[in-house]
Amino acid sequence: MRIKITSANGEWTATLNSSAAAKDFASLLPLKLVLNDYNGTEKIADLPKRLVVDGAPEGSAASEGDLTYYAPWGNLAIFYKGFGYSRGLVIIGKMDGGAQALRGRDPLPVTIMKL
After folding, report:
1. Domain span including residue 13
2. Which portions of this protein are annotated as coiled-coil regions (predicted)?
3. H or E element: which one contains 77?
4. What is the mean pLDDT of residues 44-52?
């Protein structure tokens, strides 16, 4: 499923994978969130509910542009820089480009919707 992330500073597209967590995330759309920088590698925002993670690996390493769900905190994380393995990190999709544009924009109100 393709999604669009829109802010006052730009617009990006992404593709969700077929995981249970990605499908559960898609069921929340459209969604308004405020992304905040975390650890100089990602933008994070709390989600309105915890996502289903059935069948997900115990953890993942993130690459630039990955849309992820961090199960221990219940938040969305969009990586603009790669990061090593994190237990509880579930990759739910990938930006189609432009992840670097998220860097330095904090806080960043966005709307995420299905295309």
Report:
1. 2-114
2. none
3. strand 75-79
4. 97
User: What whole-number distance in Å separates Cα of residue 103 and Cα of residue 37?
Assistant: 8
Tokens encoding 80: 């603009």
The per-residue b/e assignment along 82-95, b for 16 or more CB within 10 angstroms, e otherwise, is: ebeeeebbbbbbbb
Q: Distance between CA atoms of 115 and 2, rounded to whole angstroms?
A: 6
pTM: predicted TM-score of the whole model, two decimal places: 0.94
Number of domains in the chain: 1
45, two tokens? 């925002």
The CATH number of residue 104's host domain is 2.40.100.20
Please give the helix or strand (H or E) that residue 22 lies within, else none. Answer: helix 20-26
Q: Are strands 31-38 and 42-46 parallel, antiparallel or unpaired?
A: antiparallel
